[in-house]
From TrEMBL:
It comes from the Bacteria. Belongs to the metallo-beta-lactamase superfamily. Class-B beta-lactamase family. Keywords: Hydrolase. GO terms for biological process: antibiotic catabolic process. It comes from Rhodovulum euryhalinum. This is Quinoprotein relay system zinc metallohydrolase 2. GO terms for molecular function: hydrolase activity.
Length: 371
C-alpha cells in the first residue's frame, strides 16, 4: 500500500474554526495498478464524510458512488468502504479565512510525493475556493480533508494558476465533489498537449503508486482577461496574463485581505523557471508592482511576502538573465557556449539553481536572439 502522509496533519480544527464537529470517517475505494501486483491506494470518495462509521455507511447506501472517469484503467480491490479519516494537508491561516500550504523547495521525489508547491484556501460565507492542487490526486484528497476540518461549506471553485504539474494534478477529486475548475483560456489546450508527458515524468519521480487516480480535471471556467468570483462576503479578482512564466499564468487577489496569489510569477528561495516569455514575465511583474502594496503568496517559498518587496528577487534574476543573454547574443556567442555563463552570478542566491538555470538561459536566448 502506498502511504500518503507527507506534509499532512491529523484532521483538526484550529484558530477561528475551533469548535466544529469534525468528520471521523470517510469513504474510500481501494484501487490497484493492474500490472503492478499489490501496488494499491485507497482513493477518497468525497462527500461521504461522517462523525461515525454508521453515518458514513448510511451515506454510501443512500447515494452509491459512480466511479469517476479519472479512475478508469485501474482495478478496484473490493467495494467502497468506510474507514477512519486520513490526514489533512497542513494549512496556515495567514489572514482571516485565507490559508496557505507551504510546499517544499525541492524537486518532486518519492519522499515528498510531489508536495513542492504552495496551495491556498479562501473561505467565504457561501463557499470555498481552492487555489492550486499539487502534483497528484492524493494531494487533492488531503486538501479536501483540510477544508472539511474547517467548514461545511462547499468547495465551489478550484483555481489553477498555470499548467505545471505540481499545481494542477490534485484537482479531480475536488471537481468530483462539485467544484468548478477555473483556469487561463489557454490552460485546457496546454494540459491536453502535455498531460501524457507530465504524468510519465511524475511516475518516474514519485512512483506510479502515488499517482493512482491522478488525471487532468476538465477546465469549466476560462479566463481570457479578468474575472471575479464571489464566495459570499469576499470576492476574488482573477487576471489572465500574456505569456510570462508560462503561457497560462493566472493570478488571484482576495479583495478582503489584499493578498495576491501569484502562482509561479513570483519565486522565493526556489530558482525561477522560465517556460514562457522572458520579456512577458518582466512586463507582468512591472504591472503587478504598479498595482500597489500588499502581500503576495509566491508559487514556491514564502509562504507570504510583502509586496512589492517580495518580488524583488524574481525581478532581479530575470533582469540578470536578460542582460547576460543579450550580451552573449551581441558578442555572437553560440547557444551552447552562452548557456553556462548566463546568469551564473545568481547561482548562490537560489536553491535548485543548477536544475533550472540552463533551461532558462536556453529559452531566453531563443527568444531574445530575434529582437
Amino acid at each position: 500500500m502506498v502511504g500518503m502522509d507527507h506534509a499532512c496533519v491529523p484532521v483538526q480544527s484550529g484558530g477561528s474554526f475551533a469548535g466544529k464537529a469534525l468528520p471521523m470517517f470517510e469513504a474510500v475505494l481501494t484501487l490497484c495498478l493492474a500490472l503492478a501486483g499489490q501496488e494499491c491506494r485507497p482513493v477518497l470518495l468525497p462527500g461521504y464524510e461522517a462523525l461515525d462509521e454508521a453515518g458514513c455507511r448510511a451515506a454510501l447506501a443512500a447515494d452509491p458512488p459512480v466511479p469517476a472517469e479519472s479512475l478508469a484503467g485501474l482495478v478496484a480491490a473490493g467495494a467502497p468502504e468506510c474507514r477512519p479519516a486520513e490526514a489533512a494537508l497542513a494549512f496556515e491561516e495567514v489572514a482571516p479565512g485565507v490559508l496557505v500550504h507551504l510546499g517544499r523547495i525541492a524537486e518532486a521525489d518519492r519522499e515528498n510525493l510531489g508536495d513542492i508547491a504552495n496551495l491556498g484556501l479562501v473561505i467565504g460565507t457561501r463557499s470555498v475556493a481552492v487555489i492550486d492542487t499539487g502534483s497528484a490526486r492524493w494531494m487533492g484528497e488531503a486538501i479536501w480533508r483540510a477544508v472539511r476540518a474547517r467548514t461545511d461549506l462547499p468547495v465551489s471553485h478550484v483555481i489553477l494558476t498555470h499548467m505545471h504539474p505540481d499545481h494542477v494534478f490534485g484537482a479531480t477529486v475536488l471537481a468530483e465533489a462539485g467544484a468548478r475548475v477555473v483556469g487561463h483560456a489557454a490552460l485546457a489546450r496546454a494540459l491536453a498537449d502535455r498531460q501524457e508527458n507530465y504524468l510519465e515524468s511524475l511516475a518516474g519521480l514519485i512512483g506510479r503508486g502515488a499517482l493512482i487516480g491522478t488525471a487532468v480535471a476538465p477546465v469549466d471556467v476560462v479566463v481570457a482577461d479578468r474575472a471575479a468570483i464571489d464566495l459570499g462576503g469576499r470576492v476574488l479578482d482573477l487576471r489572465a496574463w500574456p505569456p510570462a512564466h508560462t503561457g497560462t499564468d493566472l493570478t488571484v487577489r482576495d479583495r478582503d485581505s489584499g493578498i495576491l496569489f501569484a502562482g509561479d510569477l513570483v519565486f522565493d528561495g526556489h530558482a525561477p523557471a522560465l517556460d514562457g516569455s522572458l520579456r512577458g514575465w518582466q512586463a507582468a511583474l512591472e504591472e503587478m508592482v504598479e498595482g500597489g502594496e500588499g502581500r503576495v503568496v509566491p508559487g514556491h517559498g514564502g509562504p507570504v511576502l510583502p509586496w512589492p518587496a517580495g518580488g524583488a528577487d524574481t525581478r532581479r534574476y530575470l533582469g540578470v538573465l536578460a542582460a547576460d543573454t543579450r550580451a552573449a547574443i551581441d558578442r555572437g556567442d553560440r547557444l551552447s557556449d552562452a548557456v553556462p555563463a548566463i546568469a551564473a552570478a545568481e547561482r548562490d542566491r537560489w536553491q535548485l539553481f543548477d536544475q533550472h538555470n540552463a533551461r532558462n538561459a536556453t529559452v531566453a536566448f531563443t527568444e531574445l536572439e530575434w529582437e
